[in-house]
Every structure is written in C-alpha cells, then in structure tokens.
Design brief:
membrane; 1 helix; elongated; 12% helix; Porin; OMP/PagP_B-barrel; 69% strand; Beta-barrel_OMP
C-alpha cells in the first residue's frame, strides 16, 4: 500500500514539474526588435560664430593725378545664421547671412583709412557625406569704408556693395554642433569716398567657425 501511494505521488509530482517547465518555455519573452538610429541630416536652421583673417586690397584713384594701391590686412570676427534643405540624394541647398567686423585700419599722414563692418547674404549648394558637408556659396556682400583726418575735418563713410563667392566644409561633431572652415572672395566694387577720390575694394578671406544646428 505504501509503495502504491509513493508511486502515485511521484507521478503527480512529475506531471506538475512538466507542466511548470512547459509554462516556463512558453513565457520566455520574444527577442527585442532592433531599431535603426535615425540618419543624420543637415536640414533645418542653424547659427554660429566665426573668425579669421582678411586680405583687403584698395585701389585709390585721384582725379587728374593717378592711382595707387594699399593693402588693408587684419583679423575678422563675427557670426552667421542660415537654413538648409537636404534631399534624399545627399544634395543640400540653403541660404545664409553673416555679419563681421574687420580690424584692418591703416594710417598715413594723420589720415585713417579702412573698413569696419561687412556682411553678406548668400545661397549655398553642397553635398553631404554623412556628417561632412562640402559646399559652394555665392551672393551679395557689402562693407563700410571710411576715411578720417581730424586735422582736416574729414570723417567720411561709404557703403560698398558687390558680390561674393566661396567654398567650405562643415563637419558635425555632434548631432547639434558643427565646425566650419571656409574661403571667400569679396568684390566690393568702387565708390568716390570723398569728392575726386575713387576707391576700389576687393578681399580674400579665410574663416573658421563653430555652429549650432537647431
């Protein structure tokens, strides 16, 4: 009798363990589905700061006398804002504006000559190699030229308008921050800054920048 009870108990225990094992296998959670991280995009608004060096050449023509040239080289510091559209084939188009201050004043015979602020509005076209954006840009540019001589009572300013063209590389170090390197050529045109003195200005610029993409 004891053997019969023991055998029945063993059968019941075995069935219970088998049922629990079956339930354990059945309740194993499914493996998580891999989700691809979203691809980086240059689309959207951005803003940043920039600085570098400019090599400004001035040609001065004095009516009835002749002409002479002078270099106005110096540092540049400023900022930029813009907006990009990125297409599925990797091409990027955008528009950008910037405003800089030039430190390029030259003095001779008590007369100070130079340019202070400059700015531009440019269209940009480029190609994105993931986090690297190679681009070319062109558009309108302007700068404020001045001549000052306190002894002669001269304090004249003229805004020169012209065109700009250049190229550069933006590289995203994070999803929202990028570094920039750029070369630009500015042709500011010519004007009579004082009666009889015509001034023609053009400039080569190298800049580096730090931007934030929103």
């Amino acid at each position: 009798m004891f053997k019969t009870i023991a055998l029945a108990s063993a059968l019941v225990l075995s069935a219970s363990v088998s049922a629990m094992a079956a339930d354990a296998v059945y309740e194993v959670p499914a493996a998580p589905v891999a989700v691809d991280a979203p691809a980086f995009t240059w689309a959207g608004a951005y803003a940043g700061v920039q600085g570098g060096a400019g090599w400004l050449d001035g040609t001065f023509g004095l009516a009835g006398v002749g002409s002479a040239t002078q270099d106005f080289d110096g540092g540049i510091v400023g900022g930029f804002v813009g907006y990009n559209w990125q297409f599925s084939n990797g091409f990027v188009a955008g528009i950008e504006g910037d405003l800089d201050y030039n430190f390029n004043e030259e003095s001779a015979l008590g007369t100070d000559i130079g340019t202070d602020w400059s700015g531009s509005v440019r269209g940009r076209v480029g190609y994105a190699f993931d986090r690297a954006l190679v681009y070319g840009a062109a558009g309108w540019t302007a700068t404020n030229g001045y001549v000052k001589n306190s002894a002669l009572g001269i304090d004249e300013n003229e805004v020169f308008n012209g065109w700009t063209v250049g190229a550069g590389v933006d590289f995203a170090v994070t999803d929202n921050m990028f570094l920039r390197g750029e070369y630009r050529y500015n042709d500011f045109g010519d004007k009579d800054i004082v009666p009889g003195l015509n001034v023609d200005l053009d400039q080569s610029v190298v800049k580096v920048g730090l931007g934030v993409k929103f």
